[in-house]
């Protein structure tokens, strides 16, 4: 069950692990009772400033109208502080994030006066949200955004900023998320079913339509697997060893993302900062805008790490690391940087 609040929907991401994936705040009825008990212990004063009883969804709940359901949905999700405590207790070692899609939806609602007067605001807002350079750079650009659009005193923006560690891209790179920034798994399925189903279906028709939809999704997945395994990708530079090996290893979708990072490396320059034994540290800079990163490379065991932490959070090496590989004549991608989940 995905949630959306006055700020955003909740989602939970497991600690850095190759098998990590996105979870919704409540996964099943078996966890529901545990979450309820944990949330009851949480201090509800932090959420609404009162000691009112927390709301919890139950299997089989019915509402008089769609508006009633939506109201409950938002009131339940608005208990973000209590939910965060419950999630920390029930799913220890996880990272509690907010859904960016819901943040954008609520930004359009709470900042409609800004959007109507400044058509470029949402684009600028998204650009800042996705900044991954450094916390200091994010803070600088966030303040510039508020000053530009006169939002320094806006209460919704202030509340959102207070939760920045749960939604800003620069804070999410300390755990593996497979580049998921929203409750896209549940929302994606909701969207598929909305397109396929009519509003008035009897139970037997619903089951039949559901099976048809599920069969279609499975067929699409099998088709994608077949194309990845049985047909060869053509790299944009055919005989380049690094592109050739990754095209043979990655799925089509992941290879496309890797190839884009590979191209982007040619838009950055780097200079060596220090050398200690076999370890070299480079400063990698974009040519057209501020996008500095520090890359550490050990040429003895061919290991590399970047301050942007793209590999740690998404499982793909970044343009900064690929640039350093390039200048050190590492022509094939070391096998330890090809995650099995992407093959």
Explain this structure.
There is one protein chain. The protein is α+β, with helices and mostly antiparallel strands and 343 residues long. It is built from 15 helices and 7 strands. A 4-stranded antiparallel β-sheet has the order 4-5-6-7, covered by helices on one side. A 3-stranded antiparallel β-sheet has the order 2-1-3. β5 and β6 (293-298) form a beta hairpin. The longest helix has 28 residues, at 203-230. The protein starts with 8 loop residues before the first strand and ends in a 16-residue tail after the last helix.
Number of strands: 7
Quaternary organisation = single chain
The secondary structure category is: alpha+beta
Side-by-side strand order of the widest sheet: 4-5-6-7
- Residues in helix, %: 40-55%
Question: What's the quick description here?
Answer:
With 343 residues, this protein is an alpha+beta fold.
Structure characteristics:
alpha+beta, 343 residues, 15 helices, three-stranded antiparallel β-sheet, four-stranded antiparallel β-sheet
Which helices and strands appear, and what pairs or packs with what?
Blueprint: E1 9-14, E2 22-24, H1 29-41, H2 45-48, H3 66-77, H4 80-90, E3 94-99, H5 100-110, H6 112-117, H7 121-129, H8 135-148, H9 155-162, H10 184-196, H11 203-230, H12 241-249, H13 252-264, E4 268-276, E5 279-286, E6 293-298, E7 303-306, H14 310-314, H15 319-327
Helix pairs in contact: 1-4, 7-8, 12-13
């Amino acid at each position: 069950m995905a949630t959306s609040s006055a700020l955003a929907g909740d989602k939970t991401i497991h600690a850095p692990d190759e098998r990590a994936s996105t979870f919704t705040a409540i996964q099943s009825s078996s966890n529901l009772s545990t979450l309820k008990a944990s949330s009851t212990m949480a201090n509800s004063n932090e959420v609404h400033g009162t000691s009112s009883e927390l709301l919890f969804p139950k299997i089989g709940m019915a509402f008089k109208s769609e508006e009633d359901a939506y109201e409950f949905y938002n009131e339940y999700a608005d208990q973000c502080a209590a939910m965060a405590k419950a999630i920390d207790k029930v799913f220890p070692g996880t990272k509690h994030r907010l859904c960016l899609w819901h943040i954008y939806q609520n930004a359009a609602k709470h900042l409609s006066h800004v959007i109507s007067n400044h058509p470029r605001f949402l684009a600028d807002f998204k650009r800042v949200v996705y900044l991954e350079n450094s916390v200091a750079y994010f803070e600088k650009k966030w303040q510039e955004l508020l000053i530009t659009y006169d939002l320094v005193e806006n209460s919704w923006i202030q509340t959102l900023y207070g939760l920045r560690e749960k939604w800003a891209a620069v804070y999410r790179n300390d755990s593996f998320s497979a580049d998921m920034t929203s409750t896209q798994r549940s929302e994606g399925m909701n969207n598929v079913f909305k397109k396929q189903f009519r509003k008035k279906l009897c139970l037997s028709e619903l089951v039949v339509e559901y099976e048809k939809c599920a069969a279609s999704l499975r067929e699409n997945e099998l088709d994608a697997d077949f194309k990845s395994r049985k047909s060869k990708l053509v790299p944009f530079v055919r005989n380049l060893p690094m592109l050739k090996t990754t095209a043979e290893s990655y799925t089509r979708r992941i290879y496309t993302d890797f190839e884009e990072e590979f191209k982007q490396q040619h838009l950055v320059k780097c200079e060596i900062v220090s050398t200690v034994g076999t370890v070299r540290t480079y400063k990698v800079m974009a040519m057209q805008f501020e996008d500095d990163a520090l890359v550490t490379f050990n040429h003895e065991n061919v290991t590399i790490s970047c301050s942007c932490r793209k590999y740690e959070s998404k499982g793909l090496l970044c343009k900064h690391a690929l640039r350093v590989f390039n200048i050190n004549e590492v022509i094939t991608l070391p096998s330890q940087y090809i995650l099995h989940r992407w093959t």
